[in-house]
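Appendix B. Extra example for self-study. Work through it before the problem class; the solution is given directly after the inputs so you can check yourself.
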Amino acid sequence: MRYKAGLETRERILDATRSLVAENGLDGTTIKAICEQAGVLPGSFYNLFASKEQAIVTVVREAIDAVDPDPAHQGTDSLHDLVAAYIRFLEESPALSRVYIRIGVSGAGSSPELSGRMVRHHEARVARFSAAMKRQSPELSETLAERRAETLVLALNGIALHRIIDPDFDVAWHARALLEDAAAVS
Amino acid sequence: MRYKAGLETRERILDATRSLVAENGLDGTTIKAICEQAGVLPGSFYNLFASKEQAIVTVVREAIDAVDPDPAHQGTDSLHDLVAAYIRFLEESPALSRVYIRIGVSGAGSSPELSGRMVRHHEARVARFSAAMKRQSPELSETLAERRAETLVLALNGIALHRIIDPDFDVAWHARALLEDAAAVS
DNA sequence: CTGATCTTTGAGCGTTTACTCTAATTTGAA
DNA sequence: TTCAAATTAGAGTAAACGCTCAAAGATCAG
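Solution. Structure tokens for the complete assembly:
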């Protein structure tokens, strides 16, 4: 894994894994398909990755890192900023965001590694939304703000999810509608 | 499929299929597991069902029929009624509702039969919510009411989905929060 | 009881899965 | 140029998958 050729192969494998998981989901993605799309034979795959799961985890980590960008700004962003960032992620990284939705949705199947990572990510994300919610509506109680924040995050996921079934679905419109409703209350 | 024994076996197979899909999802449910849980051998399964997919489709149809009860009342129910009915479905039919969420969410995988059925169901459901929305807020334009109705349905699914990862998750609270937000706007 | 029909048995089919192994080739620092 | 280390090729493994089938057993109308 030190030579240039190996690193290039690794990238090709990750590209293939990303698009295949986006297209077919976790269980629908096979080693054979990855190798074919990457132009590689199984021996090469297993020279660079210990298992199929390791390649998938790598791609999922990418997706999780991409969904909550600019962590330096944490503590200053508004709910609107957060939702806008999510919409941008969905629109500008179609493959990666499909990976994210598929995993977040299926509960990562039978992989404890992925499940744990996703649960922790969800908690952190709710916390970030919750902080923004409290900043925007200081009159809300602690627990109420947290629950409303979680409602918003989960509802956003439900909306993003629909794009997997209907590629022409207008995610941005619905996400903004949701945000407006939440803002109208507070 | 006419003798009493066959009908009982059929029920046992459907019970097993329902709980296994609820627990492990579509791809995680195998013929072997179904047969073991139903106390049946593969030959018996295939005497009653043409394929694994047929058994699953039967269970999914159950779930779809259960999520929108009392179609006779269509045209009179309020948004609150519809959301309350959904919450009741989620709470009173845990296994069936998990099947519903898993299928609706994953896009039914690679089964065109299931995908088509789910798409049609979603459209009908949105139409029903949309009608209730127009009744409640006549001042909204046609398309606006429809889009808001779809936002609500999808957000509800996003919330219900989280219960698959966290069984203790308070679906009812979050669903009601969503409804209040939507109501506060109109 | 008879006998046609339905049900169950359980070994086993062919395919696909993730993954391994050895030998050949390529790489790039010294 | 040398040569150990990294990378590839590609046949091959064992296990799991959905599913089949012939034979034995259970059911129930006539």
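Self-check: Residues 3-5, 30-32, 42-43, 45-46, 51-52 of chain A lie near DNA strand C (CB under 10 Å from a C1'). If your reasoning did not lead you there, revisit section 3.
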